[in-house]
Design a protein that fits this description.
single chain, alpha/beta, six-stranded mixed sheet, 7 helices
Length: 237
C-alpha cells in the first residue's frame, strides 16, 4: 500500500494504484476515511502504526465495496474504535437500500456491500468529526457524504469527483477509468453536489480514485462544465 503525505494532516493510502482511503491527523490520533476494498484492513492498520499515531475513529463516504469493503476487518483489528457513519450508509450496509420519497427513482449502481459492523455514531450534514465538517454529497450514491477539513481547506470527497484519468464529476465517463461513472446513481444530483463542493473553495481535493489535487478549483470548474453540458444534452434529448 502506497502512503503519500499532503500538508501536515493528511495521508493518502493507495492500493493497486487507483483505490484510495485517507488518514487525517487529529490531536488524539488519526481518523480513517474509508476502508478500501476487502483485504485492505491489515495494510491500513500497519500504515497508521508506521506513522506512529493510533486510529481513533473510522468514517465512510459511502457504502460501495471499494470504500466500505474492509470496515469489518478494520473494526476487528481495532477493538473499541469509534465508527461514524451517515445514517443512510449505516442502513445501506445492513442491506436495506430502498430509495426515499422525493429522491430520483433511478437505479442504484455499483458494488454495495453488507457489513456487520455497527455505527457507534451517526452523522448528518453539518456535524463535526474532529476537525472535519460533514457535507452532504449525494449523486454517486444516495448516501454519500464528504469531509471538509476547516484547518487547511482539504476536501475528502469520496467519489463526488474522480481524478484518475482526469478530473471528472461522478457520472461522467473517463474512458481510461470508467468505473466511477458506471457506478453512479444519478448524474443531475451528482452535478448539484459538485457545484456545492466547489463552493467550499477547497485548497486540496482528495478523492477515492486518483491523485490528490492541490489548488483544485480550476479542475473542478472544468469538470462541472462538462457535467453541465451532459445534463443539458440529456434534458434536451
Amino acid at each position: 500500500m502506497k502512503i503519500t503525505q499532503f500538508g501536515e494532516n493528511l495521508w493518502q493510502l493507495t492500493r493497486m494504484g487507483m483505490f484510495n482511503c485517507y488518514l487525517v491527523r487529529e490531536a488524539d490520533g488519526l481518523t480513517l476515511i474509508d476502508t478500501g476494498m476487502s483485504g485492505s484492513g491489515k495494510g491500513i492498520v500497519q500504515a497508521a502504526q508506521g506513522l506512529g499515531f493510533p486510529i481513533q475513529r473510522v468514517a465512510l463516504t459511502h457504502a460501495h465495496g471499494d470504500h466500505a469493503g474492509s470496515l469489518d476487518e478494520v473494526s476487528k483489528l481495532l477493538p473499541g474504535v469509534e465508527v461514524a457513519l451517515a445514517a443512510r450508509t449505516a442502513v445501506f450496509l445492513q442491506g436495506q437500500r430502498d430509495l426515499q420519497p422525493g429522491e430520483p427513482q433511478a437505479k442504484l449502481r455499483g458494488s454495495f456491500v453488507n457489513r456487520a459492523t455497527q455505527a457507534t455514531r451517526t452523522l448528518q450534514a453539518g456535524d463535526r468529526l474532529g476537525s472535519l465538517r460533514v457535507v452532504a454529497a449525494p449523486g454517486h450514491t444516495p448516501d454519500q457524504i464528504a469531509f471538509f477539513d476547516e484547518r487547511d481547506g482539504t476536501l475528502i470527497a469520496g467519489d463526488a469527483f474522480q481524478t484518475q484519468g482526469g478530473t471528472a464529476v461522478a457520472g461522467i465517463t473517463r474512458w481510461s477509468f470508467p468505473f466511477p461513472a458506471m457506478a453512479t446513481w444519478h448524474l443531475p444530483t451528482a452535478l448539484e453536489t459538485a457545484v456545492a463542493l466547489r463552493a467550499l473553495n477547497p485548497t486540496r481535493l482528495a478523492v477515492g480514485h486518483g491523485p490528490v489535487l492541490e489548488d483544485p478549483i480550476p479542475a473542478m470548474i472544468a469538470a462541472i462544465r462538462v457535467a453541465e453540458a451532459k445534463v443539458n444534452e440529456k434534458t434536451m434529448a
